Amino acid sequence: MPPKRTLRIAIEGCCHGMLDDIYSQLAIRQQQTGQKIDLLIICGDFQAIRNITDLKCMSCPDKYKQVGGFYRYYTGERQAPILTIFVGGNHEAGNYMRELYYGGWVAPKIFYMGGSSVVRFGGLRIGGISGIFKDFDFAKGYYEQPPFRGSSRSSMHHVRSFEVFKMLQTRTPLDIVISHDWPRRIERFGDTAKLLSKKPFFKDEISKSELGSPANALLMERLRPKWWFSAHLHVRFTANVGSLETVYDKGWNGVPPYNTIEKPEPTDAAKMPNTNTFTSNKVTSGTGAGTNKDEIAIDSASDSELSDTQSANKTRLPLNLPPPKHSNIAVTEGLDLESEHEEEKHDAGVQQQSEPEENIPSFAENQSADEPAKETANVLAEEPTFSDPRVPGRSTRFLALDKCLPRRQFMEVVEVEVDGAYDSIVPHLQLEYDPEWLAILRLCQQYMPLDEAPFFPPENAVFTQDTSPIPLLPDAYFNQELEWVNRNVFADGPVFIPPNFVPMAPTPPPGTPDSAHFGLASRDYGPSNRGNRGRGGRAGGGRGRGGHGRGESRNDSRPWDGPLPYFYYPNPQTDDFCRMLGLQNILPKRRT
Question: What is the DSSP letter of 62?
Fold first, then answer.
């Protein structure tokens, strides 16, 4: 038997800017158990707020906006004590997240998974998808542009079908998947009665099979990872999906709004892989205008804003990466934090009218001059085949956790057994690029939608013939890109994600309290005002609900000192990443 190694991974529900408290809990846990935690996973609502502009772009009522403590990690005043990865939720600084669309470091040792991605850590393959599901935005492209006015500040947090399409192209097994939203119908695989005793207002949605994201259910049906971690609904819940049980049987065309809109007729201009050109999927929009009730609002009130060389930026190891091993993951005892008696209100999101946006330039030709021409005609002549990432007989264990507040079940630690032989290949625990995911990005980038017209799978995608049909690009196309990635990126073995974080945006001066809102939350917060009990509220001197007892005033309205920061800073991490893959960065190129 090959040697085994145990990784200890802490799972956190919603962060809501409470990094100091989360890291403090981890330190206590490690001290009590004498066991080092290797990785922290945060399941959304991270709130990487750097300045007043980020606060303006965060989708939540202004009266609850606070700068929080993240900016100290951004500036280096504080250091994350443990490697941290997270997906985006529905309460984020969307402008900062868009700068790192493909993923990247938001601060040293704190990694954002991007709109969707797969990374490797210690022999594990970890996938993630950011945002929450809203049917009226799901099929749209990435039309939002700086300065992200009006409803675009919330729509940036709504997951897009293009991200789901990319994740569906996964060929080999994943160990872990992270999302903010729950997969739809997951409650049926756990103790539903216990869930309803904690959250009785879920009853109507559960009875209508409307609780959670159908897009995530589709992904779970296809990917079947060993573990799936979520947050969003502010309650701890566990479930187990057997290998033969069906999570979602409606397929791609059953996810709203694809169940109500028609795909345009095929044209002679159907795109082939690696042309690296973009043409819009223009059709008459028929997206439904309904809302999804899975979003947990902070309050029921709604506001009006609902290096140039490739080698310099990566570390290579002179060994070949082995195939991913299926890990044996077991839960250890979680932090025993009783659920607080007061329940969060569970409200529907409000769709708002967006302001006109400028057009982003089309995705231009970017084929490397020294790259061999692809024999597309020969590929098309082959009978399409599709690899399956599901492991026969393997069930999926689901864990959702609460937000970081006293007496809440917001953190647990899982122990993961991986192949100990991996240590001889990657001796230090660091995040690594995943070859398969990089191949998927090269394969799909040409189809990235940039307007509000519905995205449809490309003409060369084939729908599977099973209980939940999904669009897949044939293995022949994928294998071409994987060969390119292995030859140009992984020629010398595994590739660490480089620690190339560079601060780009201004931050408040040292000493600015977490409660500062720079005049955005101008309402008076007295002791009797419910606002004093909101997320992370800090009643002066008291501990309030979520308070820290630091004696900070909740209404710290000091003005922003200096020029207003830009809404968007082109990030060199994104440029480096696209250069490594031979892709054109089609995101905004200038400060805005």
Answer: G
State how far the alpha carbon of 256 is from the alpha carbons of 270, 348, 442, 451, 549, in Å: 24, 16, 27, 18, 45
* Residue 19, C-beta contacts closer than 8 angstroms, at least 6 positions apart: 68, 69, 70, 73, 80
Per-residue tokens: 248: 């979602």
Backbone angles phi, psi at 470, to 5 degrees: -135, 150
434 closest CA partner among 5, 124, 100: 124
* Core vs surface per residue 496-519: b (16+ CB within 10 A) or e: bbbebbeebbbbbeeebbbbbbbe
pLDDT digits (tens, 9 = 90+) for 137-150: 999 999 999 999 88
Cα gap 114→447, rounded to integer Å: 18
Q: How many CA atoms does the CB half-sphere of 55 hold within 13 Å?
A: 27
Helix, strand, coil content of the chain in percent (nearest 5): 25, 15, 60
Asked, as a colleague might, if the bond just before 257 is cis with ω within 30 of 0, I would say yes
Write down the pLDDT at residue 577: 98
Residue 230's DSSP bridge partners are 400
- Per the confidence metrics, is the pTM higher than 0.85? no
Spatial distance between the Cα atoms of 170 and 89, rounded to a whole number of angstroms: 22
**CA gap 156, 99 in Å, rounded:** 12
In the three-class reduction of DSSP (H, G, I as helix; E, B as strand; rest coil), residue 184 is classed as coil
Confidence of residue 256 (pLDDT cuts 50, 70, 90): very high
Task: Quote the tokens at residue 7.
Answer: 């990784």
| Main-chain dihedrals φ then ψ at residue 108, nearest 5 degrees | -55, 130
Q: Which residues contact 549 (CB under 8 A, 6 or more apart)?
A: 541, 542, 543
Res. 491 pLDDT band, cuts 50 70 90:
very high
**CA-based nearest residue to 566, from 524, 505, 521, 522:** 505
Question: Quick one: tokens of 215?
Answer: 């897009």
Instruction: Give alpha helix (H) positions in 407-549.
Output: 435-444, 475-488
What's 411's DSSP letter?
A: E
Q: Is the pLDDT reported for residue 48 higher than 50?
A: yes
What's residue 554's pLDDT? 56
Asked if 390 and 173 count as a contact pair (C-beta separation under 8 A), the reply is yes
Residues 138 and 151 sit within 8 Å (Cβ to Cβ):
no
Q: CA of 481: how far to CAs of 269, 274, 319, in Å? A: 21, 8, 21
Angle CA(415)–CA(418)–CA(422) in degrees, nearest 5? 140
Taking alpha carbons only, the member of 117, 133, 57 closest to residue 85 is 117
Out of 181-190, 279-288, 327-336, 436-445, which region has the weakest mean confidence (pLDDT)? 279-288
DSSP state of 43: -
